[in-house]
Design a protein that fits this description.
Blueprint lengths: L5 H4 L13 E6 L2 E3 L2 E3 L1 H8 L4 E7 L16 H13 L5 E8 L10 H10 L4 E5 L25 H7 L8 E4 L6 H10 L5 E3 L15 H16 L4 E5 L20 H19 L4 E3 L12 H12 L4 H15 L5
Parallel strand pairs: 1-4, 4-5, 5-6, 6-7, 7-8, 8-9, 9-10
Antiparallel strand pairs: 2-3
Helix pairs in contact: 3-4, 6-7, 7-8, 8-9
Amino acid sequence: MPPIDAQWLGQVREDAIDPERPLVDAHHHLWEFPGSTYLAADLLDDLSDHRVEQTVFVECGAGYHSGGDKHLQPVGETLFVANIAGASTGATGIAAGIVGFADLLRGDAASEVLDAHVQASPDRFRGIRHSGAWHPHESIRKSHSDPPPQMYLRDDFRAGFALLAPRGLSFDAWCFHTQLPELADLARAFPDTTIVLDHVGGPLGIGPYRGRRDEVYEDWQAGITALAACANVHVKLGGLGMAISGFGWHRAERPPGSQELAAAWSPWFHHCIERFGTERCVFESNFPVDKVSCSYTVMWNAFKTIAARYSQAQQDAMLHDNATRLYRLGA
């Protein structure tokens, strides 16, 4: 991801819209990598203008065990995040839900790491993300988990995926818009497994898709419509601040304000809300990845602006209640 420029972000400051409205951030990361750190203090500083009551951590390859069986090393991330969450105090329940990584391509053998994750943090661990984001074009980088092409269609992956529902675990799906039909096929094959689509389905705006936003939107719409027909699928509204979305804010002289973001994101979000219904949509910051484009305060002002066309009950559902239920926060 491009570097985060705090001075550049500071050019645009806004007061929080409706600062007392309770929120749940359904997707963020924490990490401590060489040359890049984003921990509890950083997140709390970013979200301080809004009333974020709880958050959901999603895997990013941080804190892995350095030794032992390779397939069990991701359990280190769950322990890393659970320790951060347990040490945090204040009004925000950081990482009240944890989504970790397991190599589901191992099929039945993935059961060992799934059980180890749950044992590592039984009060917080809620699901798995094995990212499938892959594209044949060399300019589009595949996911950090190094997925093969058409991973969601493979028998070995599906054997591992079948282990989730019996354990009460959900599946976060990170893929590009070109892969939405594959994810829909997976969802239809496993109707009892809860799937959460990350980042509104990953519409691409770089490489061969640069300058073709209308075409991408049309293809993406069709994929979202088919996926939303699967009652076991939910969608996260966010992630469009990533550079791969092609909006290019991170290269602008000044960062966007919330009205500019709301105008750009509204067609994508409203189509998701129309198809999934307000009961299957949650908002996500995807911080600090999306911080390359805007500040946390500005982002959630944009989210609240987009949500304002719906009833108060529907806003509460998308901004708070759905994520609490979906990830069983505090259960």
